[in-house]
TrEMBL record:
GO terms for molecular function: isomerase activity. This is Sugar phosphate isomerase/epimerase family protein. The keyword Ligase does not apply. It comes from the Bacteria. It comes from Pontibacter silvestris. Coiled coil: none annotated. The lineage of its organism: Bacteria, Pseudomonadati, Bacteroidota, Cytophagia, Cytophagales. InterPro entries: IolE/XylAMocC-like, TAT_signal, Xyl_isomerase-like_sf, Xyl_isomerase-like_TIM-brl.
Amino acid sequence: MNKRRSFLQQLGMLSAGFVVAPSLISCDSGNTTTAETAATSQEPTNGGAGGKSAANDVIKTVGLQLYTLREVLPNDVKGGIAKVAQAGYQDVETYGYSKQGGYWGLQPQAFKELLDDNGLISSSGHYDFGQYMTDGNTDAVKAYIEAGNTVGHTYITVPYLGEPVRSNAEDYKAIADKLNKAGEMCKEAGLKLAYHNHNFEFDKFGDTTGYEILLSETDQSLVSFEADLYWFVRAGKEPTAMFKQYPNRFVMWHVKDMDKNSPELNTEVGNGSINYNEIFDQAKVSGVDRVFVEQENFAANMDPYQSIGQSYRFVKNTLMA
């Protein structure tokens, strides 16, 4: 995790005109604050009326954050995307795009054609906003909007904030201002902007947190939030309480489970300690309409494609049944 964090810090020095390796942007964090007490056992709960999951009425697609396959996808993007579709997914969330390198060597139109050939969409992509957050230069944002519209995104998503830009409450207010401006750019282009959390956003600054500042200082019509539920729990936050406190703000979820014995590790959805039955029961309050499975690491000898298939089946057949 620390290795990836250093990668992301390097990205803050790069603009969209430089090649950025796809493996450099995703959803992990080097922050090691734990909150195992926020994780609960995976006990089944009754979903909606008559046993039907409340999530089934509001969640449009079950997707995969492609960072999950960062060790295999760059070597065979076409074969990997085909296997994602075969596992049952309808949607993929990209990461690591650069203007020169595209998506794993495919320029946006070619990547869109690959998705089409496999019956997939990509409703969101994670893009490096490090330079923009540092100096406000919008060139990279414009490049992401162009690529996102070609691929067919609904959301351009900010995946991470480098440490130098988030050291105090005033920094977070400045970030919120930049998010609003980027959100306006996306809106003018027919897209939406979203922000993806880790757990560092929940560090306290007096009587508030960075995340509270972002939620309160951003315009709801311009900036949405992608709730990484694993990082909510690692930060000691109860996801359903967050949904009730900020209804309709969390339009996307990252669904990844917490290993029961090692909370800093992930496991297949349904095998860990996070009570996803309870969380999916509150989907309507959240405002979510799409979810992305993600897994940062695999058990020894676990085939990544077997893993993503197992997680998909649990989400679709248990959490949304």
